[in-house]
Amino acid sequence: MINGGATQDTISLRGVPESIDARYSHAIHNSPEKKMKLLAAATLVLASAAQAAPIAYRTVKVDDITIAYREAGDASKPTLLLLHGVPSSSRMYDGLLRKLGDQYHLVAPDYPGFGNSDAPDPANFAYTFDHLAQVMQKFTDAVGAQRYVLLMQDYGAPVGMRMALQRPDAIQALVFQNANVYSEGLGAIWEKRKPFWADRAAHEKEVVAGHQSVATTRARHIGSDPHVEAYDPDLWMDEYAYLNRPGQARIQADLIYDYQHNLAAYPQWQAWLKQRQLPTLVVWGKHDLAFTPEGAYAFRRDNPSAQVHVLDGGHFVMDTRLDDVAALTRAFLDRLAPAAAGPARR
Question: What pLDDT, in 10s, does the model give residues 270-329?
Fold first, then answer.
């Protein structure tokens, strides 16, 4: 900005990174044209930062379980419920919450046993997708989310689809991010799960050791992407730390074992998608080893109007393509009719 008491050629770059200030300090004092270009660029940078929506970190009790959740945006605006994958948490949506919270209300919970929610002892709490869906349904009641756009990633699909079938009128539109509901989308990893599903006792130690390892946690993010330098190692090292908290081995084993029931439910979910014909956005990272792009294109079989975008990214496509995912999601939401994007009620 131009200081009120300064000469016309003096610019204050307060708020602009020092590296920019130092690099261009000589140029801006000797070239009015460069001065104005830099001022315009700095204004855009600062405006962009100012538009990032703040995130609130909250908790709520559901069946005596503390559920942690992130929230961004005004609750009077159209609501998105964001359901995370494995072994992540609502943290995976931080970037999206900040980018969309200016115009939308976003609520992203951690499932029991994940993130900062309570992790009840598996001896007393059934870690099944049916049960997670029940808890998340009660969570929406607790936070007053009566109608919403349902955004799902990975484990979010089996949780979210159960919720949708139970309360179809609550769902205004669907967004799938590497969230599979078609057998065509199953990668080779699922063949390796079948022996475990057939005989849990014989294979549990091996499955858990692989699932909880650094190598597997890393591979979930990078997959087949040759551009490994684009991925922040903290993404999987933080998840590795979470995965190896006390009690996590049993929690994760229970859910991996129960996943077989998701595959059995695919035909029911597909029939629901075909019958409802809801506005649907599908965004997929093509380097995902668990869920292949065929799973993305399959949505068009039951909903020909589904918008399908396969991006050059991994299983957690926002790792490297956050701006693209945010732009696609915003454009999709902006096109929804007002009746299909009602606010949450508190």
Answer: 999 999 999 999 999 999 999 999 999 999 999 999 999 999 999 999 999 999 999 999
Closest-CA residue to 176 (of 144, 149, 198): 149
Q: Rounded CA gap, 233 and 231, in Å?
A: 6
Q: Is 315 a catalytic residue?
A: yes
Q: What is the mean pLDDT of the chain?
A: 88
Q: Which residues contact 125 (CB under 8 A, 6 or more apart)?
A: 65, 112, 113, 131
**Euclidean distance between CA atoms 127 and 4, whole angstroms:** 63
Structure tokens at 19: 């590296």
pLDDT given at position 4: 36
Q: Which residue, chain included where needed, has tokens 């190896």?
A: 244
Q: Which of 84, 105, 131, 315 is catalytic?
A: 315
Domains of the chain: 1-51 (no CATH), 56-340 (3.40.50.1820)
Ramachandran angles phi, psi of 60, nearest 5° = -150, 150
Q: How far apart are CA 284 and CA 200, in angstroms?
A: 31
Structure tokens at 91: 């943290």
Confidence tier at 84 by pLDDT (50, 70, 90): very high
